[in-house]
Amino acid sequence: MESLWKRVYSKLIEKQWDNLVWDEGLIKENRRGHTREAAKYEYCHNATLTAAWYSIGTVMGKINEEEGLVILKALENQQVTDPTSPHFGCMRWYREESKVYDTNGAFFVQRSLLITRKLMSEYIFDSHKVVIDRILDRGAKWFARELATPIYYYTNKILSDGAMLLGIASLTENKEYYNLAKNFFRNWIEYTKSRGWGWGENLSIGYNGVIFSALKLALISLEADDLDLKMDIEKIMDEQLNFFRFYNGYEITPAIRNYNYDGQARRRSLVYNLAHVAGNGIGDNDDISAADAVCLVALFSDELYYDEKDYDKRNLKNEQTVPRVRITRIFDDKYSYSWAGKNGSIGTINRFPVIDGSYQHPTWGLGWQCM
């Protein structure tokens, strides 16, 4: 049978490829970008989306060598290449930006390139590898800088930085970077055991997708001798999957950073798929993004189920008692308390925000991000 990731890539190509608008190497979207400068325009040229579609298009034979070089060089133009800059190796998210506004663009753009380079290198032209490796080499310097003073409470960001450096180090056999990233993961695990998950992204469906992607990338990048660290990471992943099994496909209550503005009670998610919650099959969902295809499906191709037929064939189950209760630690002495019934759940937090100063700022804030 065709591999799961290839089925998903094929479906995305069939449904969306002809509708993509390529403009001088980047994909143009008819919407405003999310950063201050990009939001001034009615459109945006999105480097993160471009990197994901480059990966899919190249692997599936939709992008030839010359076209791919144009795309990769356009992506490289989004990178800060001045070694004296404090943002050296970081990426601008949009062409419309004159400087870096959202430093998370570094891993959101580069992770598609790294995953494809590591897992599907045989599909990539040699000339493309040269450019990708150049981007990742600069990126490693940015990620190493971030890990020098890690923001442990910002889970999806710092785990992604760590996974990127570990992945690049394993690809390039850079022992210095490998040890830096490995020690970071050890310290993060200790931090999580002793204090919790920082400001609460363990209660976010969307950010758990980023977190699982980072943890899996770390797992496949660790050497065989680092078995204890692998086991610790796998244990944390299992604990998070049990968390999602409790909610059984419904919105998390309470939720942090869920962006659920239209109040959806049921939440389709690849994380619920990973947790073996029925009704989250990839083949039954037309909303799988290119980024999720590369950064989740490609990484978890053996663990995810394609559709309900596949679910039944593999005898997957998520049996939950009704009603049920759960107490989840967020950070220090802050906990969430949840009650779940047959058709949903309710919950509360004993204090919010769980970290002082994180509630509301001009461009971000856990207040408006929690709906």
Task: Look at the structure and give the mean pLDDT.
Answer: 96
The major β-sheet equals: 3 strands, antiparallel
Query: Helix amount, in percent?
Result: 40-55%
Class from helix and strand fractions: mainly alpha
Backbone shape:
globular
Order of secondary-structure elements: HEEEHHHHHHHHHHHEEE
Strands, total number: 6
β-sheet strand percentage: 5-15%
The whole-angstrom Rg is: 20 Å
**Low-confidence parts lasting 5 or more residues at pLDDT below 50?**
none
The CA-CA distance between the termini, in Å, is: 41 Å
Read across the widest sheet, the strand sequence of neighbours is: 1-2-3
State the helix count.
12
Write the layout of secondary structure elements.
Layout: H1 4-16, E1 22-23, E2 26-29, E3 44-46, H2 47-59, H3 65-76, H4 105-119, H5 126-148, H6 155-172, H7 175-194, H8 205-221, H9 227-247, H10 270-274, H11 290-297, H12 308-313, E4 324-331, E5 334-340, E6 345-349
Antiparallel strand pairs: 1-2, 2-3, 4-5, 5-6
Helix pairs in contact: 1-11, 2-3, 2-4, 2-11, 3-5, 4-5, 4-6, 5-6, 5-7, 6-7, 6-8, 8-9
